[in-house]
Design brief:
Order of helices and strands of chain A: EHEHHHHEHEHEEHEHEHHH
Largest sheet of chain A: 8 strands, parallel
Low-confidence stretches of chain B: none
CATH architecture of the largest domain in chain B: Roll
Number of domains of chain B: 2
Shape of chain A: globular
Oligomer: heterodimer
Shape of chain B: elongated
Mean pLDDT of chain B: 89
Number of strands of chain A: 8
Largest sheet of chain B: 4 strands, antiparallel
Low-confidence stretches of chain A: none
Helix content of chain B: 25-40%
Radius of gyration of chain A: 20 Å
Helix content of chain A: 25-40%
Strand content of chain B: 15-25%
Structural class of chain B: alpha+beta
Structural class of chain A: alpha/beta
Largest interface: A-B, 29 and 26 residues
Number of strands of chain B: 8
Strand order of the largest sheet of chain A: 2-1-3-8-7-4-5-6
CATH topology of the largest domain in chain B: CBS-domain
Number of helices of chain A: 12
C-alpha cells in the first residue's frame, strides 16, 4: 500500500444525521469503511482523524449571522428567520441536535486533508464525510449546512497560496462552490451534472463561465436526463484533461457524489458503477502529471447507500492508495453477510454491474448528440485559445 | 408578471449631446459595449436616439469620399426623432409588447419629461430568467390539471403542507389538450419524493419528474 495517501475519518462525522427517513445518510461512511477493512485495504490504525473546524475557519466562507443561526438552531432555539433567511428547518435541511458540531466535523475532515497534503508529506488525502457542495455563504441548501470544499479552497488560497482546480462529479450541480469562487481567477471549478432543466438546483448551464477576473474559470457540463456511461465518460475524459491542461492547477480537489448511478433515487441519470471506476483513475493520473501528485478527494451526494455508494467510494481509496489488485477478488462475503440483513435491497456481489441493469433508452442517440454539443460548447473557450496560440 | 420598468431599467446611462460627431458616437458605443445612444439636451430631455447599426447602415463605404463627410456630421442630423419611450411604472410585459410591435430592441425611460433610464432586450431576458426562478437553487415540478378554477390553489396547498417554498409558478394552456392546464413550479427543495407522493395520492398527473417506467 502506498504511503502517499491519507484516509480521514472520525466517528463524530456520523452525527450529521437529519432523521431516519432523510435520504442523506452518513451511515454510508460506516458501510464503506467496513468494505475497505474486509478487503484488507484499510485498517483502524491507518485511519487518520478529522478535526472540528473552528468558527474562524467557517467564517472563511460563511456569514457570521448564518453560523450563529446554525448554532442557535442546534441549541434548540427557533425563529421564523431560520427557515426563510437561512434555509434551516426546511424539509430538505431540518434541524437536528448537534447540527453545528456535526457539520463542523465534516468541514474539519476536509481541512485536515489539506494539511496532510501541504504540511505532512502526503500526496493525496480522502475525506468521504465532505463534499457538501450546496452550502451557500449565508444559507443552507440541498442537505448541506457548511460548505467544506469552499472553506478548504479558501483555506488553501490563504495559507498556501496554491491555485485550485475543483472537479465535481455529483449528479447535482456544484452551485455553492461555483458561486463562492465565481470572481476568482485562481480557483477553477468544473462540474459534471444532470441538466438543471431536470434536476435541482437548476443551475450549472454551459454559459455560467465566471464573472469579472474569474471569467473563463468556471466550466459546466450539464447532461441530459437518462445519460448513460459511454456518453458521460466521453465528456468527463475530454473536459478533465482539457481544463487541467488549460488551468494548470497546483492541486486538484475532487467532489465524488455517487448519485449519477441508475439506482440513485433522486436523479435521472443512467450511469453504472463503470463511471466510478474511471473517475478517480483520471483524477489520480492528472494530479501526478500536473500537480506533483497533490489530490484531495471528498464524498458528496449518493442516496443508494447499499448498492452504489460503498463500492463507488471504496474505488476512490483503492485508486488513491494503489491497491487495485483488490478488485481481482469479488466483494468479500464477510461484508455481504455483515450488512445483507439490514439492507432493504440485494447487495451487489461484484465490483462491476451486470449487463442489462436497465432497459434500452429509446432516445439514446438524441441524448448522446445533445451531450456532445454541450461538451463542445463548454470547452469552446479552450479550443479557441489553443487555435490562437497555434497561429 | 407585474414587475415595473423602473425595477429592471439601467440607470447609469451613456448619452450624447446633439453636436457630437457620428464618429465619436460610434466610438462611445464601442467603448461601453452598448448598441443605443440617447441624444439629450442640457436639461436631460430626450431629443433622439441613434443605434450603432443604423449608423453603420447609413454610412457610405469607407472608400467613398462621402464617408469622411458622414462621420463628421453631428448626431442630431442622423438621429431618430420622436423616440418611443417607456414610463417607470409601465409593466415589463407592456414594454416588451411595445418593443416587438415597433420592432425595436431598446426603450429609453422618461420621468417628468427627462431621461431616467433605459431598458433593452437583454434586460428583458434577464428578467425572464429571474422571474422563472432559474437562478435560485430549485427543482422543477410540472403538473397537468383540468382547466377549472381552484386547481392552482389546491396544488399550492399541498406544497405548503410540506413546508416547501415556491420560487416561481408558470400557468399555461396545455398545447395538446385544451381541457387541460399545465402548472410549472420551481420549488426550493432537493428531495421532492415526499411531495410527489402526496400529489399522486391526490390523483394529480405529474409530467416532471417522470418516473422512468424502468426505475426499480
Amino acid at each position: 500500500m502506498s504511503q502517499e495517501a491519507a484516509y480521514i475519518f472520525s466517528p463524530e462525522q456520523l452525527q450529521y444525521k437529519f432523521h431516519n427517513e432523510h435520504p442523506f445518510n452518513q451511515h454510508r461512511l460506516s458501510i464503506t469503511n467496513d468494505l475497505l477493512m474486509k478487503l484488507g485495504a484499510l485498517s483502524p490504525e491507518t485511519i487518520l482523524p478529522a478535526r472540528k473546524a473552528t468558527i474562524d475557519e467557517l467564517l472563511l466562507i460563511h456569514d457570521e449571522d448564518y453560523v450563529q443561526a446554525v448554532i442557535g438552531a442546534a441549541e434548540g432555539q427557533s425563529r421564523s428567520s431560520y427557515r426563510t433567511t437561512f434555509g434551516i428547518g426546511t424539509e430538505d435541511t431540518p434541524v437536528f441536535p448537534h447540527m453545528h458540531d456535526a457539520a463542523a466535523w465534516l468541514v474539519g475532515g476536509t481541512l485536515a486533508a489539506v494539511d496532510y497534503v501541504f504540511d505532512n508529506g502526503y500526496k493525496h488525502a480522502l475525506n468521504l464525510g465532505g463534499g457538501l457542495h450546496h452550502g451557500f455563504r449565508g444559507k443552507a441548501s440541498g442537505f448541506c449546512i457548511y460548505n467544506d470544499s469552499s472553506i478548504a479552497i479558501e483555506y488553501i488560497r490563504k495559507k498556501y497560496d496554491a491555485r485550485v482546480l475543483y472537479v465535481d462529479t455529483d449528479a447535482h450541480h456544484g452551485d455553492g462552490v461555483q458561486w463562492a469562487f465565481y470572481n476568482d481567477p485562481d480557483v477553477c471549478t468544473l462540474s459534471f451534472h444532470e441538466s438543471g432543466r431536470f434536476l435541482f438546483p437548476g443551475t450549472g448551464h454551459v454559459n455560467e463561465r465566471g464573472h469579472g477576473d474569474g471569467y473563463g474559470y468556471s466550466f459546466n457540463i450539464p447532461f441530459e436526463a437518462f445519460t448513460e456511461d459511454e456518453s458521460w465518460l466521453v465528456a468527463y475524459k475530454a473536459a478533465m484533461r482539457e481544463v487541467t491542461e488549460y488551468f494548470k492547477p497546483d492541486i486538484i480537489l475532487t467532489q465524488n457524489g455517487a448519485d449519477a448511478h441508475y439506482y440513485d433515487p433522486l436523479t435521472h441519470l443512467c450511469g453504472t458503477i463503470n463511471i466510478f471506476h474511471e473517475i478517480p483513475k483520471l483524477a489520480h493520473e492528472l494530479a501526478h502529471e500536473f500537480c506533483d501528485g497533490k489530490w484531495i478527494a471528498v464524498g458528496g451526494g449518493g442516496y443508494d447507500i447499499w448498492r452504489v455508494v460503498p463500492r463507488a467510494w471504496s474505488l476512490i481509496w483503492l485508486e488513491m492508495s494503489e491497491q487495485k489488485e483488490a478488485l481481482k477478488q469479488s466483494i468479500p462475503k464477510v461484508w455481504l453477510d455483515n450488512w445483507q440483513e439490514e439492507a432493504p435491497v440485494q447487495l451487489p456481489p461484484e465490483w462491476y454491474d451486470p449487463k442489462g441493469l436497465y432497459p434500452m433508452i429509446p432516445r439514446k442517440k438524441e441524448i448522446e448528440k445533445k451531450n456532445e454539443r454541450t461538451l463542445l460548447k463548454a470547452l469552446k473557450p479552450i479550443y479557441d485559445h489553443q487555435k490562437k496560440v497555434k497561429s | 408578471m407585474s414587475v415595473n420598468v423602473r425595477d429592471i431599467m439601467k440607470k447609469d446611462i451613456i448619452v450624447a449631446q446633439r453636436n457630437m460627431p457620428v464618429s465619436e458616437a460610434l466610438d462611445l458605443m464601442k467603448t461601453h459595449k452598448i448598441r443605443h445612444l440617447p441624444i439629450v439636451n442640457k436639461q436631460n430631455e430626450i431629443l433622439g436616439i441613434v443605434s450603432d447599426r443604423d449608423l453603420r447602415d447609413a454610412a457610405p463605404s469607407i472608400f467613398d469620399e462621402k464617408h469622411k463627410e458622414f462621420i463628421n456630421l453631428p448626431v442630431s442630423k442622423v438621429m431618430i426623432e420622436n423616440v418611443i419611450t417607456a414610463l417607470p411604472l409601465d409593466f415589463v410585459e407592456e414594454s416588451a409588447n411595445t418593443m416587438t410591435e415597433n420592432q425595436i430592441s431598446c426603450l429609453p425611460v422618461e420621468e417628468d419629461g427627462v431621461l431616467a433610464g433605459i431598458i433593452t432586450e437583454t434586460d428583458l431576458l434577464h428578467t425572464l430568467v429571474r422571474l422563472t426562478g432559474a437562478a435560485m437553487p430549485t427543482s422543477r415540478l410540472e403538473i397537468e390539471v383540468p382547466n377549472e378554477s381552484g386547481q392552482l390553489s389546491e396544488v399550492s396547498n399541498i406544497i405548503k403542507d410540506h413546508q416547501i417554498n415556491i420560487q416561481s409558478v408558470l400557468v399555461y394552456q396545455s398545447f395538446s389538450d385544451n381541457t387541460k392546464k399545465i402548472l410549472v413550479f420551481r420549488v426550493q427543495c432537493m428531495d421532492m419524493r415526499p411531495l410527489l407522493k402526496s400529489l399522486k395520492e391526490a390523483n394529480y398527473k405529474i409530467i416532471w419528474p417522470t418516473e422512468l417506467e424502468m426505475k426499480p
